[in-house]
Every structure is written in C-alpha cells, then in structure tokens.
Amino acid sequence: MTENPAHTDLWPAPLATGAVDATVTVPGSKSVTNRALVLAALASEPGWLRRPLRSRDTLLMAEALRAMGVGIEETVSSSSGDADSPAGSGEAWRVIPARLRGPATVDVGNAGTVMRFLPPVASLADGPIRFDGDPRSYERPLHGVIDALRALGARIDDNERGALPLTVHGGGALEGGTVEIDASSSSQFVSALLLSGPRFNQGVEVRHTGSVLPSMPHIRMTVDMLRQAGAQVDTPESGGEPNVWRVSPSALLGRDVVIEPDLSNAAPFLAAALITGGRVTIPDWPERTTQPGDALREIFTAMGGSCELTEAGLVFSGTGRITGIDADLHEVGELTPVIAAVAALADSESTLRGIAHLRLHETDRLAALAKEINELGGDVTETADGLHIRPRPLHGGVFHTYEDHRLATAAAVIGLAVDGVQVENVATTAKTLPDFPELWTGMLGTVAGATTAPRV
Ligand SMILES: O=C(O)C1=C[C@@H](OP(=O)(O)O)[C@@H](O)[C@H](O)C1
Ligand SMILES: C=C(OP(=O)(O)O)C(=O)O
Predict the structure, then answer these.
(1) Separation of 25 CA from ligand 1 center, angstroms?
(2) From atom 10 of ligand 1, which residue's Cα is the shortest distance away?
C-alpha cells in the first residue's frame, strides 16, 4: 500500500437513523466520458458529448487533448436548440478535432484512463508529448502500452521501470499492425490500443497473452463505442479467436453522444438502501449497458435487496438485513470497495475473489480496505486474490482514504451504520464524483432523524 499522505481534513460521516427514501441523480460515467472524448478527438468531424462527467479524471483528459491541439468547448445548451447545439438541454462539450501536435505536456493525475488511453493518441501527434502525473501514477502499470506502442513503431523515452514519467515522440502517424501484450494487470492496455487503432496505418490487432484479463465489460465498452463511431472491430465474441481484437484502419465519425450515469458511482447510494432497509431510485439507469456497475443489481440482490427497472429509473430496496456473499469480482473490480463495506456490515461472512489487480489501482485497495475496516474493529484478511470479510461489531474512528475516491465512498457507507466514522480527505471523491458529500447528505435529508456524527 502506498503511504497515506497526511491529511487533516476529516469528514464526519452522517449516521442514518432511519430508512432512506430518495432519488439520486448520479453524474455521467467516467469511463464513457473519457472514451467519448478520445474518439471525438480522433474523428474526422466535430462531435458532441452531452451530460459529460465533469470530474478530475475527465477534466484532465479534456485538458490533455486540448494541449495536443483539439478544440473542446464547454456549453450549456438550451432545449430550443440552435443549429450548432445538440438536441435537448443541459451541459454539453463540443469537440473539434484538429491535427494533433507537440510539444505538449499532459498531466495524467492518477487517472488510469488518461495515462493509458493517451500515449497511443500522442504517437499520432507531430512532436513530443510529455506525460507526468501524481506520485501514485509512477507505480501504476503502463508497460503493456509502452511496449506495444514501440512494437507498432512509436518512439518513447521512458525509464527503467517502464512507467511514468515518459515522453512519446509523435511522428504524425503510426504504422500499427499486430502486437502481443499481457493485460493481466489492467484491461486498459487493450482499450488504449483499440481506441486509437482506427487511426493507425494498418489498424491494430491486439493479442492478449496473459493468464487472466480483468474488467471485460470495460473492453466491451471500448468495442461498442468504437463501432458506434463507425470503426470495424473483430472480437472473440463476434467469432474471432479468444483474446484477440482487431480494429481496421478507418475514419471515425463525429457523433452526438449522451453519456450514461456512472453506475459504479451509484454503488454507495444503492448500498444505503440495502443497509438502512430503505429505497433509492437512480434515474436514467440504462436498459442495456456495457458498464460494470450494472452488475450491482445482481450483487446487491444476492446480499439481501431487491430491484426493479421502472420508468423512473432503477428502484432499489433493502430490508435492513444484509447477507454475506461469495463472489468473483474480476469483471467488475471497481465495485469492490463499496461491496466490501457492505459485507463488513452483513450477518454472514463474505469472500471476494478474482481481484488481485486491485493492488495496483489508485492505492493497494485490498491492503487499504483490510487495514481501515480492521481499525474500526472489523475482521478482514487479504487472500492471494481478494478479501475474506467476517462481520464484527464496528466502532467509530478515522477511515484513511489513500487519495482513493472509492475508499472514501466505502467509508461513508460504513458510517451510515456505525457512529463516529470520520472520512479522511472526502474531497478525493472529486476524481469521479465531485459532488459526493452533497449528494450523500441530500439523500439522507430524506431520512427521519439522520444525524451527523460528532467529531471525536
Ligand atoms: O477502462 C476503464 O474505463 C476502466 C477499466 C478498469 O481498469 P482495470 O482493468 O485496470 O481494473 C476499471 O477498474 C477502471 O476504473 C476503469
Ligand atoms: C481503478 C479506477 O480508476 P482508473 O481509471 O484510474 O484506473 C477506478 O475508478 O476504480
């Protein structure tokens, strides 16, 4: 686990003293917004993103593309709609592709999508693009993207660790072709190469050689969005070889994309219904989606809740009784912190498996979850590929968050049921959900008798 930076700001997590009954409008998906930005920047005509997520990760992506010459205008469009505005109202980003150029500097922050999706884009630019980011970004795996780009013809100056910081010396075009990578540490290696693939001279064929591949829904999201932008993609699911994806060279369309709500960020709110025996409605829950967060319907139902997809959105209800779960989460790893928090409050044990790669996320999530839940009196052990969680009566205390947005939301979930939980640096939720504290207290405003735990 990376060292926890010293933060003195503690957020007293509100305790719920009754059942929640709320409708929570969750902002747009990080993963969809950042893919849409990259695809729009690589298109041959301008496009629109409607209801984009404005958060640290997506603003870093937009800023990086701007630094390489892409025009991104933020507008609030009215429903009357002039010729240049997308239909409907609300916030929208207009993306105007341009010849990509360096020199430029990209701050990736700690955004996996920025540090992995943009080096392939930079290889298409004219001139050097330097990538740097938060200290943790130096530790997150990037070798799959660097080695693959080199094999496909790119010139990159990195370091002996094969990680950030680095410079991609864009040559204005990339030959592309077939490449083998081991993406067992991150599905984002595959997504990164596929997203820019249509713009490589020969397209790209990515052959994953590793033993496991996490986060398949995110690869499906990449393929789906590429196809919607007009790319031709062959996949294992469309009759191709296992673990091989092929993108043909082609122009990409400028599109008008409505960004779905972030279903992974719906997790803490659905958890609130489960824990308090209440009801939470999430508007605009898509009927069909590639987002991993859709699996919450099944996972939280197995843990004791029930849900219904209605005209108003996903209506999720709990009874207050929480059952432990034995689940392989390798496809939906980013849901782990909130599921672990719920499991710590359950009436039976849980085993969460298939998530060794979480040790390389924003922080070592397995170590951090075990340590922080145990410091509140819990009994969580790390296994080779996950967590074993034995519920115990918990008490209040500081929950350290290691600059990890999902650790902070997990802590708030525990704080609903445990008096005196103080969440360190709740502002770290701004990585993907800047309004989390307001959304959370807004949801609880509908609970009779919700209290804010006193600072200890
Ligand atoms: O492509 C994406 O948008 C993501 C893929 C996943 O990464 P890993 O495969 O590295 O877990 C996920 O955890 C991350 O939050 C977002
Ligand atoms: C792993 C995550 O993010 P990133 O895109 O930085 O990999 C996450 O959001 O849970």
Answers:
(1) 23
(2) 186
Report CA 286 to chain centroid distance, whole Å.
Answer: 17
Output the pLDDT for position 453. 44
Which residues are documented as binding site for phosphoenolpyruvate?
30, 112, 140, 188, 365, 406, 431
Q: What is the ipTM of this complex?
A: 0.99
d(C-alpha 104, C-alpha 389), whole Å: 46
Instruction: Write out pLDDT tens, residues 289-318.
Output: 999 999 999 999 999 999 999 999 999 999
